[in-house]
Specification:
Elements lengths: L26 H12 L4 E5 L6 H14 L5 E4 H13 L4 H8 L5 E6 L12 H17 L4 E5 L3 H4 L5 H7 L5 E4 L5 H4 L6
Parallel strand pairs: 1-4, 1-5, 2-3, 3-4
The structure holds adenosine-5'-triphosphate and magnesium ion.
């Protein structure tokens, strides 16, 4: 459904040159995230307030894997729902196609829950629940490396998702981290020293 094609994906975006060596985190956060990235298994769940660098970290991981010629599949939640609504309109089996894609080795779901605050996706929220459950089941059953990012903590996601989703997401097998720090979008406008 959405396959990363490195020459075009993130091309001409601020994330194009993202690199693992440029990620700025506290020592504790960097230890947790780098241990997972260099030995990825099960789910790395990263939550934070906006602008801390979650998508940047995902892009750096993508670049890292592409340099090693390893495939990695990235979806941002709203883009996924846009695709799915197109498939529904075309009478295609969107859930089936998504289920097949979830077999892929390394996947990233960026911005979990972001569609919930966007009225454009209101009617698709039952789809979101199904898509995310299918994704989680596949990723967990096969213990495939998976990154999920969100502006919501798992506790906050309880208002969107049922107990079965939350139980899988918060499993002790997963690496769950809440990142702290400034909104980097604000620093873009700082006067140079
Ligand atoms: N280590 C870094 N080096 C340089 N720029 C960075 C770094 N981390 C993040 N940025 C920049 O900071 C801004 C915010 O980062 P990003 O988009 O990754 O945040 P986010 O946590 O995904 O935010 P949101 O929750 O709103 O999606 C972007 O302009 C990004 O390019
Ligand atoms: Mg982001």
């Amino acid at each position: 459904m959405i396959k990363i094609n490195k020459p075009t994906f993130f091309k001409n975006t601020r994330y194009e040159e993202a690199s693992l060596s440029q990620i700025e985190l506290s020592e504790h956060e960097a230890d947790i995230i780098s241990s997972w990235i260099f030995k990825p298994k099960n789910i790395l769940f990263m939550s934070s307030t906006p602008g801390i660098g979650k998508t940047y970290i995902c892009s750096a991981v993508i670049n890292h894997y592409y340099q090693k010629n390893l495939p990695i599949y990235y979806v941002s939640e709203c883009e996924l729902l846009d695709k799915v609504s197109g498939y529904i309109n075309d009478g295609r089996n969107a859930l089936g196609e998504w289920q097949n894609l979830c077999d892929n080795y390394f996947m990233i779901w960026d911005d979990l829950g972001s569609s919930r605050t966007n009225s454009r996706y209101k009617e698709l929220s039952p789809w979101l629940a199904d898509l995310f459950f299918v994704f989680l089941e596949k990723r967990i059953d096969y213990q495939l490396p998976t990154i999920i990012t969100s502006n919501y903590s798992i506790e906050e996601l309880k208002t969107f998702f049922n107990d079965r989703v939350i139980s899988r997401l918060s499993s002790d097998e997963n690496t769950i981290i809440h990142l702290r720090g400034p909104d980097r979008r604000k620093n873009l406008f700082k006067e140079p020293k």
